[in-house]
Each structure stands twice: as structure tokens, then as C-alpha cells.
Amino acid sequence: MTTELIRQAAADLACSGYAIALTGAGISTESGIPDFRGPSGLWTKNPAEERKAYERYEKFLTDPGGYWEDRLNAPTPLGDLGKMKPNQGHEALAELERMGIVKTVITQNIDNLHQRAGSRHVLDFHGNAFRLRCASCGRRYELPEFDLEGLRRDRRLPPLCGACGGIVKLDVVHFREPIPADVIEQSLTETEKCDVMLVCGTSAVVYPFASLPETVREQAANSRGKVIIEINAEPTPLTQRRISDYLIQGKTGQILPAIVAEIRRMESPAL
Ligand code: NAD
Fold first, then answer.
1. What is the pLDDT of residue 54?
2. What is the CATH class of 34-77+130-171?
3. Closest ligand 1 atom to the C-alpha of 210?
4. pLDDT exceeding 90 applies to what percent of the chain?
5. Cβ–ligand 1 contact at 177 (below 6 Å)
6. Are 106 and 187 in contact (CB under 8 A)?
7. pLDDT tens digits, one per residue of 140-161
8. Which atom of ligand 1 is closest in space to residue 172's alpha carbon?
């Protein structure tokens, strides 16, 4: 069954005019970064972490200096992301981009692993833990542009924006925080353009991200020829509500490379 679906996905991708990939925490679990809601997820194992996640944005709004103290003590609950390495799933998506098939990856992940695997067109829907962003004007900064430890030592936290003087936060979209307008706009443009959407390793319960496949399904009801392929360890609401055309159940680190290999085989049948 899985082999047939891998062939189907390879054929759908090879025939596509504009394929995009959506990814979630599941694609990074094989790099050692826990997801939230999978069977070994951070929140599945420790529900108190979920409550803390909802408090982070409130803390930034009410006490930005304290927010930064907390961030410097533990930037994210996901571990030391700088030490994690891309896995075969990230690498396969980068390869699909080099093959001219996948045009953009829209990721919920903040771990920067798609970029490190070689994907060039990445939209970080929920931000990126290696950048900072001004909460007023939206200007982004690379982490080394601020001496955060120095600011802490001098009791000058939070960092302030060089462009507008606004308060700078981590460029990670916390729960209850609005998604930056530029990212929403670009994600909707890519979603409208695509004819194949590959949805990898997401429970598809966080909105507005989960509305992107819904948009494609609505468009497909009006104009034929849009395909949504899910690759996930377990069925999701996209599977259950028949928003995806089919689910390839299993690990992204195994299935994505198998799809790449199948596309290559189709292109060179003698191999
Ligand atoms: P989620 O935890 O809600 O769901 C992950 C899904 O992936 C689950 O359905 C799980 O069964 C599946 N999965 C786990 N490992 C898999 C694998 N190897 N192959 C295929 N499927 C696998 O994650 P989400 O939907 O991305 O939502 C969580 C939110 O938390 C996101 O908004 C994201 O920003 C953030 N987050 C990010 C990271 C990261 O940057 N790596 C990690 C955890 C959470």
C-alpha cells in the first residue's frame, strides 16, 4: 500500500507545475527535536509545558525585560537547536527544490533545519529561533546583531530596534501572537499558485497554518487538478475531513527520500 502511494506521490509531483511543501514539528523529530502533540510529544508527556507556551506572549507584552531574561535562560523548550542537524526528510525536500519540483517550503518549525539542509525558498510561518523581530515595525535581525548577554549584564533588556526604537522580541510567533503580515501574504500567494501541496509531519490543528490546505481544497472544488498529499505518522484532521487526497502513513525521513528515488527511477527507467 505504502509503495503504491509513494509511486502515486512521485507521479503527482513529477507532473506538477508548481508544487509546494508544508511542514510541521514531525519532520524534525528524526533530528532529535520533540514535537508537541505526537505520541512522544513535549505536551503529550508534560501538559504543563502547554500552559507555559500560552503565557510567553503575555509576558512579552507586560514585561519585555523579564521575557528576555527567561529567553536567555532557556531560548525554547525544544533544546539546543544549534546542535541539531537536518535529517533525510529535510534533505529530500531540498533535493526536490533543486530538481525544480518543490518551489517553496512553508514551515511551522522555528529550527532553521530546512535552510541548513539547502532549501532556498523557505517561509518561516511561525518565525525562526535564530532571528529577532521588532514588534513595532517588523524589522528582522540575525541573532549576532545584538549583544544580548551584554544588555542583560548592563540591565538594558529588552533590546530596542535600530530603525524605529520599538521593542525587539525573538522572531518566534508565540501562541496568541499574530502571524507577521508579510509571511501570511506570501504563504497565501504560494498556496494559491500551487497545484500539488505536500503536507509533512503536522497535526494540522494550529491555525491559521492549518487553513492553507483548506484553501487549496476549496480552490480545487472550483477548478480541478489540485492534489494534497499528506505524509504523517498518524491520520490528522486533514485525513479525517478528506481535505488531503491521500495519506502516506510513516516517517518523513523515510518516505520523502523514497519519493525522490521513485521520481529519479521514473526519469531514468533503465536504473
Ligand atoms: P504537532 O506536534 O502538533 O504534530 C506533529 C505531527 O507529526 C504529529 O501528528 C505526529 O504524529 C507527526 N510526526 C511525528 N514524527 C513524525 C515523523 N518522523 N514523520 C512523520 N510524522 C511525524 O506539530 P505541529 O503541527 O507542527 O504544531 C506544533 C507547533 O509547535 C508548530 O506551530 C511549531 O511552530 C511548533 N514546534 C516547532 C518545533 C520545531 O521547530 N522543530 C518543534 C515542536 C513544536
1. 87
2. alpha beta
3. 25
4. 83
5. no
6. yes
7. 999 999 999 999 999 999 999 9
8. 34
